[in-house]
Automatic annotation (TrEMBL), chains A, B, C, D:
PROSITE patterns: AA_TRANSFER_CLASS_3 (PS00600)
Organism: Vannielia litorea
Cofactor(s) of this protein: pyridoxal 5'-phosphate
Keywords from the UniProt entry: Aminotransferase, Pyridoxal phosphate, Transferase
The organism's place on the tree of life at top rank: Bacteria
CDD domains linked: OAT_like
EC number assigned by the record: 2.6.1.76
The name this protein goes by in its record: Diaminobutyrate--2-oxoglutarate transaminase
Length: 430, 430, 430, 430
């Protein structure tokens, strides 16, 4: 590492909080991003199979979004507009209505919350409680919904929950689809407990779920299970909240992750790739009859990031105005599946996880998965683990990644895996 | 309003959540911002005495920040980098250390939380609880710290609290400085209750306060009171959290609002004008011994907005590298005081509120204050109310507002006030 | 009803709270109790298959306890002694140690809580939290532990929970043994969720259970399940609390309900029949290493009811000094089973529930069970329902009930059931 | 101590929980009680100025109550009757209506809760929340309402609160009358915070208070303050709960402690001396329009202690059927005041505390007060301290204590105080 690098790295040690994380395993000083590549200050490039944890579904610095954003800024377009009307916001909403909501027969309204997924989740939970007068929200094992106190209550991860250092209220945990193995219908279990006058689960305000648990290990719910959950919510007067923060914006192959499941969520939370460009931006979609907040009742300085309105509009118009992109995604998910299958056969007992373009391989231990990812990083691939024990190697590449780059990335991943497994075998043999 | 405007406005009614607020009283379709001016789609301009609720302390589209940001984007600089090391982040931290922390003898570390003030407050409260093992946090009447469940517990406003639709835990409310009038030392009251073995106030993890309550009516705490609170926190093993989200970044005349008070907060929360450009960005400053989060224990997709690192660095270097800006602010706050005094004399019983460049006039009723602001909007000035009854006309102009523009804005404000008062007098006379 | 009776009944309507309950279905004015009989003011007698909800396991006014109590009172024995040492208390503890604890190898200490079962449960939950530093307590579907705020959180019944009119904190609900039918091992499910780092169930302070759920429908846990739960508690650092308030004091055929299960609970809560005479009295048994309350840390005016010490000592010495009583119980539980089987065959789909001398028949609907009990009352038998839908006809006769009286009671019950079923059949036929 | 005594004491060490408290400072083995005397197993007698913490307002073993109770038991009167109608209960309610409620124009209904004060408080808080739909209850510094989780939230004492080992929800603490000294109107402070839209104190379900804080140091609220609080409760839609558990049943010179204050509480909680004989018994009085519990919604096995109905009826008829007893109390409270004044002059800075027959002297330190009480015990007087630092020597003698016995007791107390002060002076002089 050149001297100035060392010094610059020092600044992080000296002045950045110990809460920093990704930089620990991937200590390069990154400087640029282009498409599916991350480039460090020395010009070294990595293929990016992390994509800002699915915040860069259209890759780094998409040229059309870039051009529009530069034009906006150059022309003194509003950078920060509170929740005032702006022509930029109007254009985004119109594009979102035309290309996303209307074709899917969704009458939802858009609420621009603070620009973090957690803020959208907090708003969703508050709305559900205000609508129903109940406080209990059903959330699932391995669900991840953010780490602010309201959202954190719905998050299953014990490490994050511990960060609260106090009790988290208002959420009942239930087993996700498949949690107890194949024969057990966890939706039926939930229904039994809710319907039992002495089941001890209070009447719910909402049921919140991810259709694919991105942080929780790429557990994919079946359409049947999601429909059953939706029916349970309706029966018990609860709202159905689908947290599409990681799985939305095309990640599963369709714009929303639930499109082909036959359910209409009362609330959808969105963030990550919603801006298209990686800018902080979040929103929730809410059925008009549940749009119950008064003016600014849930507020925040940065609700509605105007720069993000610019890029998000371009993203919608570029990728979702016709079916071409979705068709492309259908092909890529087959590619991913095939290449991940190659990885899975290397590891005894490994299983494929996930759906669409958020797939991975459960290699059975967090140690192994982390070793593979660390080795991949050395070889030029940025990739991360997922799951309650970090046991899943997770592919979250930009959806726009060219087939060739996908293959390059998977070649690195396979090389890394073989290298790690060989080393382990040698050590075991000694 | 031209036809297309109407149509465009319709999109908000049709598709934006009823939670939208500022646009209701100021329904123009804004398009551009330049310095202290907001300009609508038809080219009509308003002087901006709101400044994104103090998120645009350096005005709209500062040319130096703009140039740096455009250069960054054009050159494919990282837009979204999770919490990886980036040269952009390093440059920001270095500038912040050199020009802000070091000269003020602050050894704090910077934690980049999710890019909302509320997220920084949530992180601060969690840290305090983790450090102390206690959950109780003391917050004050009329304090405003955000609306996510953790922060909302610390927020006094009943309308916002009601949005939670469930109980808010972990906070004890105490009267702010001056709350019971001049003779009553509310810090001493807090101390008595905390020191009483049967006082019924549990041992605190933290005391959180704004030195000037921006949303709560521009109530300014005296240095003596803040010092007393700091001493109470220390005595009872609690952390002192100063929420400088609205009052920081020069708003009170110095970079931090507490600089001249003789206290060193354990944690400082920052957001709003921290990016310099109005971009979503938040951080907390924490003494090294309290920097207790493990890696990603408090996480979030948009922690560390790379675009904001660019503009925030320029803002620091441009305005805070020497004392020129602070001197300018000292002059402007006198101007503001003088001109607000003119307003105050118009309204019987009106009082001046606030400190530095966050001052206002308590005109005694929310109805009157709102009428004045509404009339000012019609005359070309964007300005808002504050306070538990919206009774304070609050000036939050960009700190960079030229004296001439300041005077223009105040002229409009005075004209508006006179108009409203005359109308009221006429109605009363009839 | 004679005139003075009417007037007297009026006093209840006029001045007793609407919270009164048993008197609604059994409106007689009771005056005396003798053995297994309740006698009203006119001398009419009922066989008592309710026994004060298992508070009168030795029947009404046992002559030996009565004599001892009268002697105590006549001799100016202490009636109320706070938690001072009294010779009466010493004698009780000695008898309890000699005849109950020592023979069962239990090293537990006795804490005299406020004289209600709920108070003992509250104390138990507080101890578990103090010992472990965790707040989460695992409780089960259909569990009943009392209606004060701490205990109510552990109670499953939704009607009682609703009485709190606010959120109940600190408890996670899990399915009881057999809740999801025969094939499903609910202990294994609990273990999986607790062991999962993202299972979202916080580390428990305790697991609390009844081995037979008296209010919840006479659901009897298997010894295997209880042992598995005990192992889970130990593994996760949680205390095992067995709530033996209704099932203890011989009700299941042994003094404690868990005696033959191969577990040693960390805490046992006792009340109901502990005094032997129906007097308010509760206690908890706690292993010495968990006896962590400081002096009066959990206090209460009536902790240690001195009159109850007198009768409780007699009860212990009379019934538990040798094995005769237990042998008698073994015979009686066979009798009960046989006679209940007669009832079960009358109702299609009816099932036998419970264990020992707390058995009943699930007749499939609360309406039917209530009708049977109401008819039995008219015919001279006091008996009640149980279960989440009141669908279980529950026999809780005094353990001392002579075989002949048992049979008399069952004869009435069968007559009542046949009558109700015949009427229903006639109505159905019309 | 004779050998058998030692052995008997061993049983407590060996088998009684460390939570036991009074017996630590007063280790005698008590056996009998007669009037105002406690007698140990060896026949040694103490004058009782503690009276079971005001549970024995009519002394030990009042002959009339004793006779009635023995007659009841001998005649096989019901010992335990759940909440069935009994002639015994009817007779009690009738007496209570005739002699207590009717003459005071109180239309309240009586709810027999579990037989502890805490249970009555829990029921009161639940009712208030159910009536109003709010969860927040205002309680005061130094208030004591019990240690079960709901009541404990309202209790100020930090030692007891800590016993919960988790957060206590649903209560806002406010300063009691006089808490900040003479000039400060704490009711006005409460009113200001409640009326402030951003005061951060949620709309209350109830305000709960003791007119004289028995455990909190005999702080006596002024009638003006209580009236102001009652008005605030009414204005804000909250119920007024007066916890008369310690101060009621004649302790302040009238049956209820609030009788001469010009307020009608919505709910009154009663326990301690309600049975007259020291038996476990509690009740709450609730205005009919707030009697909202459904049948058994708040239940408990021992609600309505039948033995206590017997003695409580005799107590009401014997002491409250005419004004003789109240006149006697008026004289005795003057005696107490005079004799305590003698004590107060001995200690520099000492102040008289309390009202009626619950008076004491604040001697400035818990150490001194405890030393005086310990010395008094040695000299034959049972007396205890009170207050947040145990700094108050508190007289809670039976109300029936003859003047001569009162004087004897006070003579002992003064001797003890002089002895302790002399010793301290000697030590200081050395």
């Amino acid at each position: 590492m050149p001297k100035d690098m060392t010094e610059t790295a020092d600044i992080f040690t000296r002045r950045e909080s110990a809460a920093r994380s990704y930089c620990r395993g991937m200590p390069a000083m990154f400087a640029k991003g282009r498409g599916s590549e991350l480039i460090d200050a020395d010009g070294k490039a990595w293929i990016d199979f992390l994509a800002g944890c699915s915040s860069l579904n259209y890759g780094h610095n998409d040229p059309d979004m870039k051009a529009a954003l530069v034009e906006h800024i150059t022309g003194d377009g509003i950078a920060h507009g509170l929740d005032l009307h702006t022509s930029t916001k109007a254009a985004f909403i119109e594009a979102f209505e035309r290309h996303i909501l209307a074709p899917r027969d969704m009458d939802h309204r858009i609420m621009f919350t603070g620009p973090t997924g957690a803020n959208a989740v907090e708003a969703a939970m508050k709305i559900a409680r205000k609508v129903t007068g109940h406080s209990n929200i059903i959330a699932f094992t391995n669900g991840f919904h953010g780490v602010t106190m309201g959202a954190l209550a719905a998050t299953g991860n014990g490490y994050h929950r511990g960060g609260a250092a106090m009790d988290l209220a208002g959420v009942t945990r239930m087993p996700f689809d498949g949690y107890f193995g194949e024969g057990v219908d966890t939706a039926a279990q939930l229904e039994q407990m809710l319907s039992d006058a002495s089941g001890g689960v209070d009447a719910p305000a909402a049921i919140i779920l991810e259709t694919v648990q991105g942080e929780g290990g790429l557990n994919a719910a079946s359409p049947e299970w999601v429909r059953h959950i939706a029916a349970i919510a309706r029966k018990h007067g609860a709202l159905l909240i689908i947290d599409d923060i990681q799985a939305g914006c095309g990640r599963t192959g369709t714009f929303f992750s639930f499109e082909e499941m036959g359910v209409t969520p009362d609330i959808v939370t969105m963030a990550k790739s919603l801006s298209g460009f990686g800018l902080p931006f979040a929103a929730l979609l809410v059925r008009p009859e549940h749009d119950v907040f008064g003016p600014a009742e849930h507020n925040g300085t940065f609700r509605g990031n105007t720069h993000a309105f610019v890029t998000a509009r371009v993203a919608i118009e570029k990728f979702w105005a016709d079916e071409a992109f979705e068709q492309e995604l259908a092909e890529k998910q087959r590619l991913i599946l095939d290449r991940l299958a190659e990885l899975a056969v290397l590891v005894p007992g490994a299983t494929l996880k996930g759906r669409g373009l958020m797939q991975g391989v459960d290699v059975g231990s967090g140690e192994l998965a982390s070793a593979i990812c660390a080795r991949a990083y050395e070889l030029g691939l940025v990739i991360e683990t997922s799951g309650n024990e970090d046991q899943v190697v997770k592919v979250l590449a930009p959806l726009t990644t060219p087939v060739e780059t996908f293959n390059e990335g998977f070649d690195i991943l396979l090389t890394a895996a073989r290298g790690v497994l060989d080393s382990a075998a040698k050590i075991a043999a000694e």
